[in-house]
Amino acid sequence: MISAFDNFPALLIWLPLAGGLAAFFMKDEKSAKTWALFSSIITLILMGASLLYTENKYFALNQVSYYWLRDLGSSFAFSLDGMSRILCLLTSISFPLIIASTWNTRYHQPNMFYGLMLLAQCGLMGVFMATDALVFYFFWELALIPVYFLASQWGGERRIQAAFKFFIYTFAGSLLMLIGILYIYLKTSGPSFSMASFYSVGLTPQEQAWLFWLFFVAFAIKMPVFPFHTWQPDAYEQSTTAVTMVLSGVMVKMGVFALIRWLLPLFPDAVAKFDNIVIGLSVTGMVYASLIAMRQDDLKRLIAYSSIAHIGLMSAAVFTVEHDAMQGVLIQMFNHGVNIIGMWIVVELIERETGVRRISELGGIARKAPVLTILLVVIALANVALPLTNAFVGEFLMFNGLFRFSPWYAAFAGLSIILSAVYTLNMIRNVFLGNTNSLTEKFREITMEQRLILSVIVVLVFMVGVFPGPMFQLLDLVSENIIRKVAHKQP
Amino acid sequence: MNAIIFAAVWGVVMMYTGVVSRRKFVPKYVAIAGILLLITVTWLEYAGLPFFNLPMKGMMEFNAFSQVMNLVLFTCTLFYFMLSGSDVEEVGNYGADYFALIFFVLCGASIVTSFNTLLMLFLGIEILSIPLYVLASSDKRNLKSNEAGLKYLLMGSFSTGLMLMGIALIYGATGSFHLAAINLSIPPSALLLSGMVLMMISMAFKVSAAPFHFWTPDVYDGSPPVFTSFMATIVKAAAFAAFLRLFMQGFGKLHADWQLLLAIITAATLLVGNLTAVFQQSVKRMLAYSSIAQAGFMLFAVFALNQSGKQGLILYAAAYSLATIGVFAVLIRMKDYTFEGFNGLAKHQPLVAGMVALFMLSLAGIPLTAGFFAKYYMLLATLKTGQAFWLVILAIVCAAISIYYYFRVIQAMYFRDGNDPGLRVSEGFKTTLLVTGVLVIVLGIHPDWLLQLLN
Q: How confident is the model at residue A5 (pLDDT cuts 50, 70, 90)?
């Protein structure tokens, strides 16, 4: 039994799980949130430690597998490879940030809130590390349940409907995926659910063609890609900000991650066949979401739509199956998570100070809170992928790949980037510049802790933007491996 | 064999309990003792220690499947007694007699899980059904209960009539009541096929599969809720065991002939159950339709007719029964059976609400609960046959629809405010509910612990 705890993947799952369960039994608010912060920081430290042991000789430290359902050929198997590492890193960085940045928000039943948050973290870690299809499905759903409860119990007036829509969409999608998983499972030799046997299964192009859609719909709903995105703006708007951060910062990455991890290697023929459709959808979604974002008056909805545009670019880049684009997606998943959490933190600060999120009712915050404004501008510019910021690295690579795939798609996608600059700068002008009004007159400058939290994000923005080397080192060979798998199976 | 004899004897013991002791709660504990005894003797027989070695002449066969099924049924009954036993006594003046009738039902249930001839099937089904007619109308002062009993009796007799006709036709075609002999007659004559169709219809009546489900909502709604809980779970599971056994051992070689018909029945059951459940305002009626919807999933076991289906049915019986018994145990104690009645329950009774939410998640088939693996095995079994892919997709759509009505209860309990629903529960009740919930999760993490009993 001890062997179950001397490796990183197992610990990264059990720690948040244990922390979450313990949080349920906390009596008062203070201890619940201190505990949650403590637990998530321990997870972060552990994750940081695991980055020191990435070499091949530490193989045993980075993977775990024990028997689960022997008769079914499923084992409780996880491993930390380059792609898992970067997403687990994102997950473990985001949770302390989220908990710390919403420290002063008061929740009723705080022990439930923080417990569910940590359980969601456990589910996300499982999704990113699972190397067994059934375990992957298990955690895919397990990440969803706590977030459903979080989104319905705390938040705006229409939260119950919004969260329910989100749940029904994603649950329907994942059931389709389950059918796909079962179908492939019955084709494997063994049969077995392990990722290796899934990768080596031989599927005819016809089978791939319909299995592709079963999986793709599940992932597309999660990301979300146009036209499966309708749950997203409502869910982001109605949830309380901490939950919105989890949803947009980490959870949507599940979809992109699953595309790369499962869809590409499993259905190379279908990917070659449908790439134009998917990229077309993604690019359409980018332009469409950017156009809608320009018309939004609610800060949360604006960021929600801008997120659809960013995710659209990632999904388009995945389907180019280009080396550069793939690198870009992998690194951008991390950057997008960091940046969007930064944006939400600012929204949360503004809403807490003024009580509103409507852009038209705000203005002149820069005069009252210059530090906040500077930090926000950096994050916002990172969001539109200005050079020197982290998102530039990712988006540049993705555009590169997309351009090589087809200049037309790249041109359309570029349009959306221009639009994103327009609405972001507009938002900055209307909210931060100009004259103060009655609402923003009493705006207080942010406190030391808040500066610290936002500075962490700004540091991450510049660190990856100026010096992306370590990131690429972490992702070494990941995209080659995937592309080789896709190319290898293609006739 | 142990189970049949002990269940019948304990039924009589229960009747005497009512005569000997007039005190309340005595029958409940005698009944719990009885069910523990039943579990023990069934376990002993499963382990190779039958108490009786009667010449069966091949009329019954107690194999691993029937023993494990009996164990599941009895264990669910144990939880049913512990959670709702005192509510059984509340229904009328004859507390001990209700328990006696339940033991007779269990006797019938253990016959239908292990019959080998059509005669035993018929006997078992009748022993199973007749006490239920009485239980359905046991709330004598309530018109709806009387109506439920009468309706159940009429529809039950009708389906029994169909079954008898089917048996007669099959006997005419093959000259035998034995399942194995019936299975040998290939190619089938028209007589045999029509007999088989009649059998299928009458079994569909018993498990309340569409389009033979019309009695179900009224009977489940009208009967005292505590007996609805029993009818919708243990009795239904037993009927499914009979259904599977009959078609596997009796008509297994004609699989191709009846598969399409059963697929249509399955599809209709799924659609009718799920779509109608969406529009219910009362949780009790919703559960009645949900039991039809779940029956649709259980029919996959009969449709697939393979090992995964068998395992799936065992697991489904356990998962579905435990969750439904748990929900009913709480529902019985609620004053208001509508969805609004559950508003704000989480605030006033956090543990009870948590368990009800868990049971709902299990019924909806969310991972980490037993309901997930139950549905999983059914889908796996069907995919293994390589046929009727449309049915699998339909099942998925229906499972997604079912989220809607199961989650309405969760939403009411957790996210809406309401007055104290006035639910009074004892600590013992809470503990038992918690144990039931733990069992649901254990089966949802490691279903192998139950399924390896089959090997």
A: low
d(CA B43, CA B49): 9
The pLDDT of A8-36, averaged and rounded, is: 87
**Beta carbons of A70 and B448 less than 8 Å apart:** yes
A70 occurs within a structural domain: no
Q: Is the link from the previous residue into A96 a cis peptide, with omega within 30 of 0?
A: no
Q: Does A238 reside within a domain?
A: no
CB contact under 8 A, A69 and B376: no
Residues of B with CB under 8 A from a CB of A: 361, 366-368, 376, 379-380, 383-384, 392-393, 396-397, 399-400, 403-404, 407, 411, 414-416, 446-448, 451-452
Q: What is the tens place of the pLDDT at every residue in A35-76? A: 889 999 998 998 888 888 877 777 777 778 787 877 788 888
In a domain, A467, yes or no: yes
Which chain B residue shows the shortest CA-CA distance from A167?
B403
CA distances from A101 to A112, A242, A457 (A): 18, 8, 11
Nearest by CB to residue A175, choosing from B399, B415, B447, is: B399
A361 reaches B (C-beta below 8 A):
no
Residue at token pair 């999986």: A215
Say if A377 falls within a structural domain. yes
Q: Longest Cα pair distance anywhere in chain A, in angstroms?
A: 70
Question: What's the domain count of chain A?
Answer: 1
3-class SS shares of chain B: helix, strand, coil, % to 5: 80, 0, 20
Chain A residues with CB-CB distance to B367 below 8 A: 137-138, 141-142
Of A70, A160, A172, the CB nearest to B400: A172
Residue B36 pLDDT > 90, yes or no? yes
Tokens representing B447 are 């279903």
DSSP A317-369: HHHHT-HHHHHHHHHHHHHHHHHHHHHHHHHHHHHHHHS--BGGG---HHHH-
Kindly tell me if the per-residue pLDDT of A3 is higher than 70.
Answer: no
Interface check A477 vs B, CB under 8 A: no
Cis peptide leading into B447, omega within 30 of 0? Answer: no
Average per-residue pLDDT for chain A: 86
Domain that holds residue A305: 274-482
Q: In this complex, do B367 and A183 lie within 8 Å of one another by their Cβ atoms?
A: no
Looking at residue A53, its pLDDT comes to: 81
Q: Give me the pLDDT at residue B119, please.
A: 92
Is the CB of A152 less than 8 angstroms away from the CB of B415?
yes
Q: Is the ipTM of this complex over 0.95?
A: no
State the pLDDT confidence band at A2, using cuts at 50, 70 and 90. Answer: very low
Per CB-CB distance under 8 Å, the chain A contacts of B407 are 164, 167
Is A439 in contact with A351 (CB distance < 8 Å)?
Answer: no
CB pairs under 8 A between A and B: 61
DSSP symbols for A140-153: HHHHHHHHHHHHHH
CB contact A176 to B (< 8 Å): yes
Question: Cβ separation of B393 and A179 shorter than 8 Å?
Answer: yes
Query: A385-394, B101-110, B442-451: lowest mean pLDDT where?
Result: A385-394
Q: Are A323 and A339 in contact (CB under 8 A)?
A: no
